[in-house]
Structures are given as structure tokens and as C-alpha cells.
Predict the structure.
Amino acid sequence: METHPDIVEMRQRHEMAERATSTPQGQALGTLAFLTGIYLAASPWITGFNGLSTLAVTNLLVGLAYALLMSGGFGRAYERTHSMAWGACALGLWTIVAPWVVAGDVSTTKTIVNNVITGALAALLAAAASAATRAAESPNARRGMSAPFTPGRR
């Protein structure tokens, strides 16, 4: 059972996930992305545009979704991290255009500056997470992995 191809592949994926999350860069990236999502969720109350309810609710929901996508990606669902990071990148881009797209006239200087900077940072962090998963899955990264366990082999 230990040498079954599915078990060996699953073990290799786990090793890649461990390698990607155990680096200081991977941990910093995950932490910064999570904090960016939490800031985006709280930004209407931090920067003072919570009276603009459509954008406040949009930022709250998008920020929470971003934080959840980026915090759960590397370790628990490694094979889906790449897709989740691109989804988070789309949320970052939505954050940039939201002041002009949501209902009502919410495109004030505060909202535009807040959303453009936060959205750009969110998109960049998500793109970096996607690149990190690609790097961990690359053939060069796999060459550095130890050979799969085979019972009876020394």
C-alpha cells in the first residue's frame, strides 16, 4: 500500500506544501495577505467612509473573502492554492474599481485612495502566492525532494 502511485503522489504534494509554507517568505506572504484582507474589511470604519453603505458592505465582504482565500490556501488545500490565489487576485482588482462601480456616488478621495492602494496590494500579494505555488510545483523544485519512501529499500 505504501508504494501505491496515489499515495506516493499525495506524499509528494504534502512535501511541496510543507516546503512552500515553511519558508519565511511563504509565511510572510500569507500573513501580509491575511492582514490586507482584514484591513480591507475594516477600512470603511478605519478611514471614515462607513456612511457610504454600499462601498462599506462591499469592502467588508470582499475583505473577508480575500482573507479566507489567502489564509487557507497553502497548507490545507495545496492543489487548489493556485486557483484560489487567482481568485483572490480578481478580488483585489475588483477592490480597485469598486468605488466607481457600486451603486451610489461613493467615489470620494478617501474611498479611491483606500481602495486603489489596498486593491493593488491585494492583487500583488495574490499574484505572488500564485507564483510561489508555481515555483513549488516546478520540476526544479521536485528535483530537490527526497525520493519517495519504499519499504525494504535502504
